[in-house]
Amino acid sequence: MSKYETNDSRRKFLKQVAAGATTATAASIIPSRAFSANKQLTVGMNIPMTGDLAPWGLPGYYGCEIIARNINAAGGVTIGGETYDINIATYDHGYETDKAVQGMKKLVLEDDAKMVMMLGGATVAAVLPWATRKKVLTTTLLPSDITPDSNYLVATCESHPLYNATGVEWLARNYPEAKTAVIVTNNDVEYGLQSTALYQAAFEVAGIEVVDTNLHGFDVTDFAPIVSSVLDKDPDIFCMATSFYVTPIMEQLYHQGFDGKIISCTLDFYHEIIAKTSVDFVNGTIFQFPDFDDPALADVNFPDPGGFDAAFRADHPNDWSAVAWEYPVILLNWIENAQAAGSVESEAVTAQMTGSEQNFVFGGGSWWGSQLWGLDNVLVGRWPVVVVEDGRARIQEYGDLAAWLDANNDVLIKHMKALGLRTV
Amino acid sequence: MNNFIPAKFRPVLFLLLLYAGLIVLPHFLKYHQQDFLIFLTINILVVVSYRLVTLTGEWSLIHAVMMGVGAYTSALISKNFDISFWITLPLAGVMAGLVALLLSYPLFRMTQFYFLIGSFAAGEAIRLSWIQFIKPFGGTGGTSAIPSPELMNIDFLEPIPYFYLVLIVVSICVYLLYRIENSRIGLTLHAVHWKGVLAESVGVNTWNYRTLAFVIGSLFVGIAGALKVHYIGTVAPKQFDIGFMVFILIWVIVGGYRTFYGAIIGAVVLSVLDEILRGVEQLRPAIYGATLIFFILYLPGGLESLPQKIKQKFRANRESAT
Q1: In a domain, B276, yes or no
Q2: Fewest CB within 10 angstroms: A24, A106, A265, A302, which?
Q3: With the CA atoms of A341, A400, A200 and A154 taken in that order, what torsion angle do they form, in degrees rounded to the nearest 10?
């Protein structure tokens, strides 16, 4: 199939899903499966739905439910001549490794899931030996999970924390007077340290000096001393890397009168932060995850982002987080590749996926990763730089992540090694 | 039936039936339930070994971490030095026992509540060191690609062979723990708990016996840790955090700690309940919590006291009827 044909069919598919959204809204009180003659195509989500990491699992399930509902309302999806309704099967592993192993087997062997979406980290490491051996296509939001042997593990949406480089690039270009930065984040290997290495590299490339780095444990309950100790260095930029504690840190920055630039990977539940501080204080904060009602998303590879955003907030008013749209993006990408492969089986879809050009959700899309983790199974493309304006998250531009990585890969590796992180 | 089987053969018959059931059980389970059975069997060793520590009256909050000591020991040695699981498995127990011995010097200067808090602090110090020292422990993400056991051509990545391996190892360990509890040492441990001053007055060194229980309990839970990580293939600090320790405590308390089998019943019943509640994820913590409160209020002696209570109830009913 030519690239044109692929793009043509994908546009058709996205339009079909968007059209399904209207039908699904009208018929939302009647489950489409109740009278559908289509076969069921099950996709698995082996994610934390309870516990500390539930905000990075559960909203993703809600998002996938909306997408599945829209697809089914539009008549299902045709793959290899067969029309299917999408069924989302979940397993709550609560970020426990043994539960994650059980969940993987349940989803694949009992629920017949053809692909399994996961958050990443230790739970992915736990399922990898079995999933790789059984050739189960598995997705992660943390590309640092990828190893030279993990042929069936892909990161097709979030390439945490690589995309944070685009935020630093934008900041340096728009605020050239900002020359010093401090980094505060949790000291975990999966999120905090990976992100710290990336920000250190991005600041170095941008000519910004990191004057202090505070890597704290998860047991911190009072951020006042941490924030005041780094603010003593009088930084121009306060970077939260990938902190699990964005809200209390932002509160401290507000109370301690910080008036420099704030940059963070995520700013989940930023309306709560505004409620606890002020609109003026949060305005100008730079992060990487857009709301999907943003007008700048009009041309992305996602069916009716505004409608999706509205449907999500109608169903789950207080649950929108960074993963709300990421798992749906992964699901849509998988469906497109299954259609192109003409099969729902893992081997065929994985081969199609990794062996062809991909349309990344925000544009662009190239396979990357061997430079850091030994395998090109990370899909990188354009990534949005988001800034809070008048209390709303708004995209400022799309940064070219692939170009930054190609140019600065060696700087990133240097900082990763300094923090003891795994690289090839 | 009881009249036909002499009393001394009844336990043997019970065990024969139990093991016959356990041997065929995994073949009737779904795939993920086979994994559940493996973890449940390992957790039985965890609670039984914990019970040995509690025999002296000291409840610690370090048992989960000692499991981690064994897990990390076996994982790191087998992965980094390419040493067989069959050697690292006992080494895991030895290392956990040695760490317990080392810790016993400061910890047993405390008793009761102070010991509880002290053991928590010591456990956290060990667990945080796994997080802080990325080399060799791997930090929060831990270490992965831990090799499976190798024996002839048996595929221990598959759940049924691994379950049989776990069943054998756990059975041996539980049997040894049972023998210890029913030996002179075990009786002395009970004496240290219930009549500590009297025991000391007749020459029993209570410090040594508390240390012995702590070391033996840690040794066996270290083996449990190794069994777990060589199946999952990854070891991380979160597997042995205070959350898991609370589960151990709950299993023992709900099951009952006065008999050898009480803690086993607690682990089995609550783990199965936890699994049954899957599917109602949002309500699971609430239902689990309500169940615990129910047991604490209405069955403070634990599940082990239930048969006795039922017997008493029947007897009372019979007497009132006559």
Answers
A1: no
A2: A302
A3: 0
The answer to whether A126 contacts B232, with C-beta atoms less than 8 Å apart, is yes
Question: The tokens of A171 are what?
Answer: 């900041």
Return d(Cα A99, Cα B39) in angstroms, integer: 9
Q: Please tell me whether residue A227 adopts helix, strand or coil conformation.
A: helix
- A167-189: pLDDT as tens digits: 999 999 999 999 999 999 988 88
Judged by DSSP in three states, B228 sits in helix
CA distance A279 to A284: 10
CA-based torsion, B204, B206, B211, B217: positive or negative: positive
Of B140, B232, B282, nearest to A189 by CB-CB distance is B140
Name which of B133, B227, B232 to mutate to probe chain A: the one with the most chain A Cβ atoms within 10 A of its Cβ: B232
Residue B23 lies in a domain: no
Residue B204 to residues B58, B189, B209, B262, Cα–Cα distance (Å): 17, 10, 8, 28
CB B160 within 8 A of CB B38: no
Tell me phi and psi for residue A39, to 5 degrees. Answer: -70, 160
Of B300, B229, B248, nearest to B77 (Cα)? Answer: B229
| B43 in contact with A, Cβ within 8 Å | no
CB A72 within 8 A of CB A85: yes
Strand duo A366-368 + B234-235: pairing: unpaired
Instruction: Give the integer Cα–Cα distance in Å for A174 and A346.
Output: 44
Q: Which helix (H) or strand (E) holds B102?
A: helix B85-107
**Domain range for residue B114?**
34-240
Task: Give residue-wise pLDDT tens across range B140-176.
Answer: 878 888 888 888 888 888 889 999 999 999 999 999 9
Taking contacts as CB-CB distances below 8 angstroms, the residues of chain B near A101 are: 35, 231-232
Strand A378-380 versus strand A153-154 pairing type: unpaired
Q: How many domains does chain B have?
A: 1
Nearest by CB to residue B139, choosing from A102, A103, A193, is: A193
Residue with tokens 């309306």: A271
Chain A residues within 8 A of B64 when measuring between CB atoms: none
The low-confidence residues of chain A, meaning pLDDT below 50, are 1-6, 26-32
A3 burial level (CB within 10 Å; 0-12, 13-18, 19+): exposed
The residue type at A292: F
Close Cβ partners of A364 (under 8 Å, ≥ 6 residues apart) = A380, A381, A382, A400, A401, A402
Task: Note whether B149 and B85 are within 8 A (CB).
Answer: yes
Name the CATH superfamily for A164-287+384-418. Response regulator (3.40.50.2300)
Work out the number of other CB atoms within 10 angstroms of the CB of residue A218.
Answer: 16
Calculate ∠ Cα A2-A5-A7, nearest 5°: 110
Specify the amino acid at residue A220: V
Position B71 in a domain: yes
ipTM for the complex? Answer: 0.75
Cross-chain Cβ contact B239/A97 below 8 Å: yes
**A interface with B, Cβ–Cβ below 8 Å:** 49-50, 90-92, 95-98, 101-103, 105-106, 109-110, 121-122, 125-126, 128-130, 133, 147, 187-190, 193, 217, 419-421
What are the residue ranges of CATH 3.40.50.2300 in chain A? 3-160+293-380, 164-287+384-418
Q: Is residue B27 a part of any domain in this protein?
A: no
Which one of B32, B36, B234 has the shortest CB-CB distance to A97?
B234
Segment A348-393, tens digit of pLDDT: 999 999 998 888 999 888 999 999 999 999 999 999 999 999 999 9
Question: Are B92 and B49 in contact, with CB atoms under 8 Å apart?
Answer: no
Instruction: Report the range of poorest mean pLDDT among B109-113, B193-197, B258-262.
Output: B193-197
What is the token pair recorded at A419?
């923090």
Using DSSP's 3-state secondary structure scheme, residue A29 falls into coil
CB contact (8 A) between residue A92 and residue B135 = no
